[in-house]
Design goal:
mainly alpha; Helix Hairpins; about 80% helix
Length: about 180
């Protein structure tokens, strides 16, 4: 005869189920935040950074033209000291323009490579989202059923007495057979 199950604590299963629900909610929020951050980063690269660096290049180009004009004016006027200062200003403006152009190139490269670098990780995040929403929902339903089944079982075992071994007299002192008067 199989042994009876010894259920000692339904509360432990219920506590685990509660913690699983909390985990599911927290993980869902984190996954949502990650997905939003991926989208914000894409928009930042595509719109904000490209526009920003294109504007910087236009400003730096105007600055360079202005500094070149100042140098030309200083050279025509024959001022040697002023000419040296303007040459340095022109060099600095060229350097800043190149730096802005380099940054725009880098942003464009990031923008082109974004999908191939981010998409594999984003797919893993979406797979995890599915596991959290679908698989954990199934696990919670299963735990509900386990708790219900074990609760019913424990009520039956408490309500019913354990079967007596064969050949043992009943507890009231009478024999197992009815007597005929």
């Amino acid at each position: 005869m199989p042994e009876r199950a010894k259920v000692t604590s339904l509360e432990a299963i219920e506590a685990f189920r509660s913690r699983l629900i909390v985990y599911r909610e927290k993980a869902g929020r984190v996954i949502d935040e990650v997905s939003e951050e991926v989208l914000r980063t894409r928009m930042w690269l595509e719109n904000d950074r490209i526009t920003f660096w294109e504007g910087q290049i236009r400003r730096k180009h105007k600055e360079l033209e202005m500094r070149q004009q100042e140098l030309f004016s200083a050279q025509i006027s024959g001022m040697r000291d002023a000419s040296f200062v303007q040459q340095q200003a022109v060099q600095r403006a060229r350097h800043e323009l190149r730096a802005a152009e380099d940054k725009l190139r880098v942003v464009k490269v990031w923008n082109r490579q974004y999908d191939q670098r981010v998409e594999p990780v984003a797919k893993q995040v979406e797979k995890f989202r599915h596991n959290i929403s679908h698989d954990l929902a199934n696990a919670l339903a299963y735990l509900d059923q386990v708790i219900k089944t074990l609760a019913e079982y424990s009520e039956i075992s408490v309500a019913g007495s354990a079967p007596k071994p064969v050949g043992e007299p009943p507890a009231n002192g009478q024999s197992g057979e009815e007597s005929n008067p």
